[in-house]
Fold this protein.
Amino acid sequence: MQYRQLKPFPEGFLWGASTSAYQVEGAWDADGKGPSVIDVRESYPEGTADFTTASDHYHRFSEDVALFAELGLKAYRFSIAWTRIIPDGDGEVNPAGVAFYHRLVDALLAAGITPVATMYHFDLPAALDDKGGWTSRATVDAFAKFAEVIFREYGSKVKHWLTINEQNMMVLYGEAIGTIKPGLPKSAVYQANHHMMLAQAKANQLCHALVPDGRIGPAPNIALCYPETCHPEDVLAADDFNAIRNWLYLDMAVEGRYNSVAWAYLEATGATPEIAEGDLELLAADRPDFIAFNYYATHTVARPRADGSDLAGGDQQIAVGEQGIYAGATNPYLPKTEFGWEIDPIGFRATFRAIWDRYHLPLLVTENGLGAFDTLVDGQVHDGYRIDYLRDHIAQIQLAVSDGVDVMGYCPWSAIDLVSTHQGVSKRYGFVYVNRDEFDLLDLARYRKDSFAWYQGVIAGNGADLS
Ligand code: BG6
């Protein structure tokens, strides 16, 4: 649909930006922090940094928040490292870790920036992982305990909460991201998924009970899946992948039930989880207040060929396909980033519409952005390619708003450079450049990229001027 006149971005729109604890903070063992699954990984992809120092945000958060304020951010989405709060996942609370997020939140509030806190972003406590991680039901209780601690600590100041970042990516691509040990059987992966659903349901209830005016939502990665052709079997394959990748997670988060096509897929592949007495009641007991979602690009799939070529190798954005279920395909209409990820701003609008039509809950974008090899020359980073990417996507948000979608805000990835999940420091997303290389920390100084000034202008004009 085309409009002669677009609706403006709503008043109070949360123009923001995002990070996650383990990718930005560093200080991986400081002040009593326990190790997470990320910290104890035996290896990292060749040529990429580990996360021990990252962007050293833990020590430089004041300087970073000052930059976010200068950028004009209305919201900052960050995650709370479970292992700073409860180092072994379910034991004693670590006061020094608790104090860090008080300092961060206080700095944000003093700068007029709304804190949006993710409870868990890929960094499960290693001590819990040693006891089976999410495959163990005990982790659900540990998460509920952690939730209670952080809601009581920060609930008077933090009103926007996200439960679990990209649960669907951890389930589908956990090996690529580094959250699942290679070789975990599929049935165990979906048992872990079921437990994360229960943990999320408990967090919703606790937030509503403990945080006055608190609002909480899930934060999966949602991206519409296109059929490669209009052949009915390709359309059906896209429908299957939409159910397996997207609706399984949101139907459960919003409606408290398993999506039937996704459930049929689990049955067909021998991966149905064990559901204990009371689980279904807990899952349906509460509803989120909004849906947060991360969007990088759509996917395209085709009917399975079942000749060994259904799965395309690669990472979370590329490795689409499952033998005999649906085949990954390339969309010939879409350009790609330097890292091979497709770029599809119009798919962003289509994804908004699809989520809104299904659930009619306000939508908050918690990630979207361009990973690129930025270069610092004379203190400057000319990242016009990132401006183009962001401009094209923000324009599609306004079209979605004009379509009638209730959009709360936009928090692109990332506020500042940080370490990519598996492609190191060189794959940069930030508005602020951090001066370090993969293995040489240099001086970790901060530099405003060209996209910084551009986004500053967008925010100042509430999206009216994207030039
Ligand atoms: C999402 C994650 O998958 O995409 C982030 O929530 C991640 O943690 C982002 O960094 C970009 O992915 P990558 O692999 O380029 O770091």
